[in-house]
Every structure is written in C-alpha cells, then in structure tokens.
C-alpha cells in the first residue's frame, strides 16, 4: 500500500462523484457553451453557469464579483496581474510567493513596473507585516499575496492585509491555491479585488481547472484574445466579464468535475485536522528540522529536513523503501527557500488532504524516525 502526501501539488485521491461527473459530460450530450442555441450548447452553458454560482457560494461573493474559468491558478494570476499592472505602477508582494506570481512580476518589471518583497523570518517563515507600510509608495497600486505558503503552510493574516489595502486604496489579489476549500475566504465585504484559485488541489476537481473570482470594477486588459461566440465582428476582446478572461472554448468536463468537487467540499462532514497530531510527533524526532510558524493558524503543509541530508535523497528513500510520496526541492518558491536558509538542499514537503488517515501518518512517522537514525 502506498501513502500519498503530496497534496499541495495535487490531490491524487478524489471523491468518486468527480470522476462520475466528468464521465457524464463526456457521454455525448454536452456541446460548446455560448456557441449556439441548440440543446447541446445550452446543456454545456448550464453546466458552466452552475459552476460559477458554486464558486461564488464557496467564496461568499456578491453580485459585484464574476467568476472566470482558466486551466489553473497560474493562468488566472497571469491574467489578473498582466491585465492590471502597467508601466509606472508599483506592487507589494511577499517572499512566500510561487513562481506563478514572481515570474509575471519579473516580466512586468521589464515593461516598466516595479515591486518590493515583504520578507520573512528564517526557519519560521513568519512575515514582517510592518514592512508593508515601510515599502509603500505613492505609485503603489497592487498587493498580491499567497494566502498560505506552499512551503511552510503558514497562513496569511488576511484581515490585516485587507485593512491595509483598504486604508491605502490598493487592489488586493490573493493566490488561494493552497487554501480554497480548506480555509474560508469571505468576499462579502468587497475588499479583495481578485481571488485566483486552482481546482485540482483542495477543491478535489480535475487537473487543468481553476479560475478567478474577480470584482467587476477591476480595470483589466485581456491577456488572451480570441473567440467568444457572441461578438464575432469586434476586433477586440469584449470588455464584459467573464468573456474578457475566457477567450476560446472552456473545459466543460473539467469545470463540471470541479463543481462536483466544490459541492463535496461544502457538504462533507467537518472533521478535526490531523495536522496538530502530525506536528507534535514530527518535532519529537531527533535530527529533524521543521520549518514554519506553528503558533498561528495554518494549513496542513509541512516542510522538513533530516540532519544534513539532501531533500531529494530523503524523498527518494521514503518512496523506494516505504512507498510514501512526498515532494523534495524548492516547490517553485525560490524566495521562500532563501528566507528559510534552505537554498543548498531544499526541503521535503509532506502535505495532507481530507483522505489522509492517522494510520498513514503513523507509518510515515515511523519511516522518518528510521531514516533519522541512520
């Protein structure tokens, strides 16, 4: 029996209803949404519109928000950041960020935008929140933050950041890749400009799904342009959301599966997290270094190292000898590893899901104990 603890990358175990729903959409009864008035197209359209409503319910989003679907959070972040930030604009971000935020910012920097990074403490990865005010400029326009670090599991003090952005009239963009479906996100106050999410992690949808719940007053330019099925003679992408961000045919089977995943998340029985148990046991293993802030609320993502071993070696041993799937290396978050002091070897990341059992964690802890004693 193998144990899967790489859920921060993607959840391998999904509710059965997700696969069943995808199969239903592929049965031959669903066409291209908004591309005709026949029953096949209308059936596809209804699937997509139902999913938009499910996403809004998940994020408690009112009528001032619209949902646009993409094929992952990376595309959603690119669409928002490149559609919003212009030459001369200044951006605040953090060293928690994934390359899906950092690389667009590096590209925008070459086009005349600037940005500053809010740094973190070594080992704990705790953000220096006071630096938001210190690095604020008159030309600051956007704050983009990871809601939870995909390396340490640390959770952003979202209410603090929302208040900061409201006070200084800034657009707040949240990367919810690690939190959508796990940590409540409430858009009812309208203070967040956009929440970019992926479908294949804690929403338990298929890979290749995601999107953005975006405030309709956000002055965006389209990143991609193409067919919309409605305004064929227009030389530009229609400005209306969600069409502005949805050029081309949508992934209807994937979106339907995402809807099923969201419904499962919203309806499933809430159980206590196994994260506290896992943390308490991990910290008792001699020679194991645990990275992150465990004094504040967090998600169930744990980064460790054993003695001075390379993270890739430890992860390979966990798989080859114990059939435990983990993720070594840098997790596409280079600034986080610079802050933690792990650039030389990365970390071994273990991440839980709703399908993780205590028995699996006990086996994992035994394996780590054995490796630490070598």
TrEMBL record:
This is Cysteine desulfurase. Pfam families: Aminotran_5 (PF00266). It comes from Enterococcus devriesei. It comes from the Bacteria. Residues 3-362 form the Aminotransferase class V domain. PANTHER family: CYSTEINE DESULFURASE, ISOPENICILLIN N EPIMERASE. GO terms for molecular function: catalytic activity. SUPFAM superfamilies: PLP-dependent transferases. Signal peptide: none annotated.
